[in-house]
Amino acid sequence: MLKKLLPKASVSGVGLGLRRDMLDPSYDLSLAGLDFMEVAPENWIHVGGRFGRQFRQIAEQIPITLHGLSLNIGGFSPIDVELVKNIKQFMADFNCPLYSEHLSFCGDDGHLYDLMPIPFTEEAVTTIAARIRQVQDILGQRIAMENVSYYAAPHQQLSEIDFINAVIAEADCDLLLDVNNIYVNSINHGYDAEEFLQALPGERTRYIHIAGHYDEAYDLKVDTHGSDVIDPVWDLLALAYKEFGVLPTLLERDFNIPAMAELQQEVQKIADYQDLSVPSAAVIGE
C-alpha cells in the first residue's frame, strides 16, 4: 500500500510514470518513496475490473498527474472534443492537478501510434496555439506542453527553441520540461543542450520528466524510456534546478521495466539531486 503524502490537488517532489506492469504484486510501490504518479489518461478512462480497482486505490492515496498520448495537438484533424471532455471528467473524478501533452502530432484521419515532428513555422505556431487554447477552454485550466524528441525537421523556418517559446507564449500554456529530450535532440541536431535549456521559459515550467534513451550511433540517440538515465541527462536535471528551482520531477520507464529495487534507486537519485539544490521546492496545484 502507498502512503498518502500530500493532498491530492498538489504535487511536489519525485514521481514515477505508472505502467500496468507495476500493478503486479511483485512491485510494492510504497517502497519507492513516491510523492506522485503520472498516467496516460487514454489508458485509464472508463477502465473497470481489477485494473480499475487498483488504479482507484492508488489515486486515493497519492496525487496523479496526466500525460496524454493522443490529443494530436499538432495535427490537422479537429480536436477530439469528446476525449477532452472525458479527460476533464477524469481529472475531476481523481482530483488530478495537471494535464500535459506532447508538442507533436500523432494522427490524421486515424492514429499513427507515434509522435511526429511539427514543422517549425510561423503558421504552425498560430494553428497549434489556437488548438491548445481550445483544449484549455474546455478544461477550464492551462495545460502543459512537452518539448519532444524528433528525428527530422521538415519545412523548418524557426529554430526548435524559438518554435517552442512562441507556441507557449501565444497559447498562454505551460511547459513540461523533458531533460532527456533536450539531450537526445542536442546530439541528433547538433546544438548546445545547456544553452537550449536556459532559453526555455522557466516561469511557465510546471514539472520535469527524466528518462533513458537508446544509443543507435554516436550521433543518433533514440528516446525510448527503456534504459537507465545517463550522467549527461542527470547534469541537465541539476542545471534545470539551478535555473528554474526544484520542480516536481518524474521518472519515465516504458519498457525493460526493472525490478522495484532498481526503479527505487533512480527515484532516490532524483530526490538526492533535489536535496542538493535549493531548499524550497515548487508545488503543482498551489
Which strands sit side by side, in order, in the main sheet? 1-2-3-4-7-8-9-12
How many domains, as an integer? Answer: 1
Strand count, sense and barrel status of the largest sheet are: 8 strands, parallel, barrel
- Given as residue ranges, the uncertain stretches (5+ residues, pLDDT < 50) are 1-9
Give an overview of the whole structure:
The chain is of the alpha/beta class. The protein has a single domain (about 15-275), classed as Divalent-metal-dependent TIM barrel enzymes (TIM Barrel), CATH 3.20.20. The chain is built from eight helices and twelve strands. It has helices spanning about 50-60, 80-95, 120-140, 160-170, 180-190, 195-200, 230-245, 260-275, and strands spanning about 15, 35-40, 65, 100, 105, 110-115, 145, 175-180, 205-210, 215, 220, 250. The strands form three sheets. It has an eight-stranded parallel β-barrel with strand order 1-2-3-4-7-8-9-12, surrounded by four helices. Strands 5-6 form a two-stranded antiparallel ribbon. A hairpin with a 2-residue loop joins strand 10 (about 215) and strand 11 (about 220). Helix 3 packs parallel to helix 4 (about 160-170). The radius of gyration is 18 Å and the shape is globular. The model is unreliable at about 1-10 (pLDDT under 50).
